[in-house]
Each structure stands twice: as C-alpha cells, then as structure tokens.
Amino acid sequence: MKKLLFAFPIVALLAAGCSSSEQANNQKSVAQNPTSTPTSIAYPTPTMVASGAISYTPNENLFTVTKKEFTISSKFNATILASQSTECGTNKTKTYFQGLLSKYSTTDKGTEYNFTYKGKSQNSDGYSVTVIPNKLGYKTLAEFQADFNICAAGASLYPALYSNSNLLFTSSCGGVDDGSGLPNGCIELKKAIEPTLKLQ
C-alpha cells in the first residue's frame, strides 16, 4: 500500500507536465501560423470628438472643421421666421416670433460649425451645424420644428436635433449635378457627419 501511495504523486506530476507541454505546443503553433485567429475579434469604435455642445466622428481625410460664435439676434430675425412660417403654411406672425426671440438676451450666443470637404467637388463643398441654447423650452422635436421649420430648399438652418439644453440646426445640400463626375462635397459631408452627430 505504501508503494502505491508513493507512485500516485509521480503519475500526477507526469500528467501535469504533459498538459503544460501540450499548452506550450499549442501556443507555439498559433504563433507560427498567423492565419490562426480567434473566432471573435473586438475592433475599436471610432473616436468621437467633443466640441462645445456637440460630438461627432472626425475624418481627417474627408473634411476640416472650424467654429465661430455669434449672437442670437444676429442670426435669427422675427420677420424672416414669419416669412418661413407662411411658406410652410403654419402662418405664425412676426409678433409671435418677436415674443419668442425676446427670451434671448442681446448677449446670448450660439456656435456655428463649418465643415469643408477636402477633395474636389461640384456645387457646394461645405456643410454647417448651428447650435443655440434651448431657452424656448422645447420638449419635443416637433415643437422645435413647428417654429423654425423651413420649407424652401437651400437653406442653412433646418431644425434637426434638440435637448433640454440646446437646439441644433443643419444646412441643406442643394445644386444640380453639373455632369463633371465629381462628388457633391456637401452631400458627402452630410452622409459622413449626420449619423454620428450628437447633441448635449
């Protein structure tokens, strides 16, 4: 019986040694064979750039971006908003929009982000995103669009996103294909930026 008890640890050690050897051989085999890959690979998600109230996925090969501040009163006008409302059939008056804009002080500011297409382009090579504070208290996108919607083509302030803190407008991409075969820079920017655009 003592001999059997003594032999058991030796067998266990031999078995452990074989297991370690097999693992080492397997690791060596994978290292020597680069085509052996895991069945599931975790790829990094695109980096988001946060700039003021917005974030988006950058693309240095596709576009550059600049930003500038402006006063709300210099960008939004009650007469123009009333005219836009008439075009859309909502028929809100100039007086209504004067009351709306009065919620902003003369020093309240917004930010305009201008994206420029890097390649050769037909028509416009620019796309803009404009953000202002949500001092008007909109709780839904429909409320925001009801006051600021534009039914004409080619404008630069279409209501697109809202949050409790901010309102975001985007520009449109107009123009007729000129037959040059070049991409429309604005459309390429819109396709790349809008799906990743987030508002704080």
Question: What is the gist of this entry?
Answer:
It contains 6 helices and 8 strands. The chain has helices spanning 2-32, 72-75, 78-88, 94-101, 141-148, 185-193; strands spanning 49-51, 54-56, 63-71, 109-117, 126-133, 158-162, 166-170, 198-199.
Q: Which terms would index this structure?
A:
200 residues, alpha+beta, three-stranded antiparallel β-sheet, 8 strands, disordered N terminus
Low-pLDDT segments, ≥5 res: 1-46
Strand order of the largest sheet: 3-4-5-7-6
User: Order of SSEs, N→C?
Assistant: HEEEHHHEEHEEHE
Structural class, from secondary structure content?
Answer: alpha+beta
Shape: globular
Mean pLDDT: 81
Distance between the termini: 77 Å
Largest sheet: 5 strands, antiparallel
Number of helices: 6
Give me the count of strands.
8
What is the number of independent domains?
A: 1
Structure description:
The chain is an alpha+beta fold and 200 residues long. It has one domain (49-199). 36% of the residues lie in helices and 22% in strands. It is built from six helices and eight strands, in the order αβββαααββαββαβ. The strands form two sheets. It has a five-stranded antiparallel beta sheet with strand order 3-4-5-7-6. Strands 1-2-8 form a three-stranded antiparallel beta sheet, with no helix packed on it. A hairpin with a 3-residue loop joins β6 (158-162) and β7. α3 crosses α4 (94-101). The chain is globular.
